[in-house]
Amino acid sequence: MAEPIVQVRNVTKIYKRDTMDIPVLQNISLDVPEGEFLALMGPSGSGKTTLLNLVAGIDRPNNGSITIAGSDISKLNESDLAKWRARHVGFVFQFYNLIPVLTAYENVELPLLLTHLSKAERKQHVEAALSVVGLADRMKHYPKQLSGGQEQRVAIARAIVTDPTIIVADEPTGDLDRKSAEDVLALMEQLNQEFKKTIVMVTHDPQAAEKAHKTRHLDKGELSQN
Amino acid sequence: MKILKLIIKNVFRHKLRTFLTILGVAIAVMAFGLLRTLITSWYAGANAAAPDRLVTRNSVSFIFPLPLSYRDQIARVPGVKSVTYENWFGGVYIDQNHFFARIACDPKTMLAMYPEYVLPPDQLAAFEKERDACIIGQKLADEYHFKIGDIIPITGDIFPGQWQFVVRGIYHGKTPSTEETTMFFQWDYLNEQLLKTSPTRANQVGWYAVQVNDSKDAARVSDAIDALFANSSAETKTETEKAFQAGFISMSSAIITSLQVISYVIIGIIFLVLANTMIMTARERIREYAVLKTLGFTTKHIVGLIFGESLSIAILGGILGILITFPMAAFFAIGMQSFIPMFIVEPETLLLAGTFAIAVGIISAIFPANRAMSMQIVDGLRQVG
């Protein structure tokens, strides 16, 4: 059997708020095989976003290890971790988080600015990513000229433009109407099935979770099998 | 270079705020430039002084006169090339607000000693010929629309009475830094009037201007002149023209120091204006910085964005400020030419203003950059933009 692409081992995360320690994750272990579409569900404050942030390398565990595609990211320094994120992670946020002064094209191009690709090569990649999300005709539009669903699709294009190892999505449909949410979920399903992308998605929405191959529940910092 | 586009777009994200900040920096740079120009103009007379000219005055004070009889004795001192004499006349033209220097002189020797005052030969001849003739600088003529043949009435204060002078010449400065705002008239005219009205004040001069053969010999000649009149009723103090001018400037040193302090306070104001903008900007964009970090941008990139934006605003404001300094300085030069004959913006002033603008741009970015550097991504993403 192939090694899981995501290996979370005995991870504990404790936040400090003033003098108080707030344990969020307690001794969590999780494997995600390559090509998996995993949904993480749980009530607010259960630690699912924290787990997602740890997997994406934007937060660090207090204990345990997180290995993605063979790299133990919990041991990387800030600079190496930033490079690792640029290369291996595509992040989709609940509120899209596009840069308002940049066009759809420029937003999608952002992660490619950290690569050694030429301008022509970047153009090729951006156009391909925007075509995948069905917004090739909106590349000169600014975020405020797009609907919520379209903004999220641009954000997905930004997440996939570097062809990352995994895509992590934090409530990607949380700010969308039902129709737009279905479009976004269909797109994520397409990325998983057609482009074989490994996706870890946090969601509250059972309908969104249905699109995933597997759902894991987090409650009070502990992970349970669905 | 790849984030340059983002820096430029960020600069103009809040157009009104950026415009007002740039304008604030520009006005401060201009004010700094004008104040520094005022200070350098104050020193311009001393800096323009000829090294081979000395001034001999009463050792007690400039306001006490010296006997005219000293002229020939000074002329005989070895190393002296020529001697002329002058008197500060004072007086009021129209009212106290219409100030310009009025000096009684010996036309024959004065213009020979000051070749920087250029006067056509026919006008010089007319000046020498008529007792009540005067010559005026071109700027003074322009300001009051004086022309040759006009009569300038002056109410005397140091030398009481109603005086009238006929304009017989208009001199030009040989270089742009030569003053053109003085009225010179014949010392003989003043002396003749004093002989009639106040004989005890006649045959006295305000100071002697002494030209030496060799400027390196100035110290020895100065000592020799002062030694001549030691223990007399009117002892002298001889110094270089530059030192003489500097002595005048030192009388207003408190004003100059105040101007210098104010000019640096203005730099502080630029800093506060720009720092405030940058702190607001960085606070608003914390979430975006977190997003950029999530995408793989490093702290170095984020710091580059903040410094780039701050420097862009400071440089734009600095350039605009320097550009508007020139017309404002020209405006001031016209308005104050009687008081400050040479109001010229020096390249050093512009360099200093530009340097301060850039320094302010860098310093203003330090606090927000430090905040962005210490920001954790997860904290930044929670920030409501």
Please, could you describe this protein's structure?
The complex is a heterodimer of chains A (226) and B (385). Chain A is α/β, with parallel strands linked by helices and 226 residues long. Chain A has one domain: Rossmann fold (3-Layer(aba) Sandwich), CATH 3.40.50.300. Helices cover 33% and strands 27% of the residues of chain A. Chain A contains seven helices and ten strands. Chain A has helices spanning 48-56, 78-88, 104-109, 119-132, 148-160, 178-193, 206-210; strands at 6-17, 20-32, 37-41, 63-68, 71-72, 89-92, 166-170, 198-202, 214-219, 222-225. In chain A, the strands form two sheets. A six-stranded mixed sheet of chain A has the order 6-7-8-3-9-10. Chain A has a four-stranded antiparallel sheet with strand order 2-1-4-5, with helices on one face. In chain A, a hairpin with a 2-residue loop joins strand 9 and strand 10. In chain A, helix 5 (148-160) runs parallel beside helix 6 (178-193). The two termini of chain A are 22 Å apart. The mean pLDDT of chain A is 92. Chain B has 385 residues and is an alpha+beta fold. Chain B has two domains: 4-45 and 253-382, no CATH class; 60-234, no CATH class. Helix content of chain B is 56%, strand content 17%. Chain B has 14 helices and twelve strands. Chain B has helices at residues 4-11, 15-47, 70-75, 107-113, 121-129, 138-144, 187-197, 218-228, 241-250, 253-284, 286-295, 299-335, 347-374, 377-382; strands at residues 53-58, 66-67, 80-88, 101-105, 117-118, 133-137, 151-156, 161-173, 182-186, 204-205, 207-212, 236-240. In chain B, the strands form two sheets. In chain B, strands 1, 3, 4, 5, 6, 7, 8, 9, 11 and 12 form a ten-stranded mixed sheet that branches. In chain B, strands 2-10 form a two-stranded antiparallel ribbon. In chain B, a hairpin with a 4-residue loop joins strand 7 and strand 8. In chain B, helix 1 packs across helix 12 (299-335), helix 2 (15-47) runs antiparallel to helix 13 and helix 10 (253-284) packs parallel to helix 13. The longest helix of chain B has 37 residues, at 299-335. The model of chain B has no long low-confidence stretch (mean pLDDT 90). Chains A and B meet through helix 2 of A and helix 1, helix 11 and helix 14 of B.
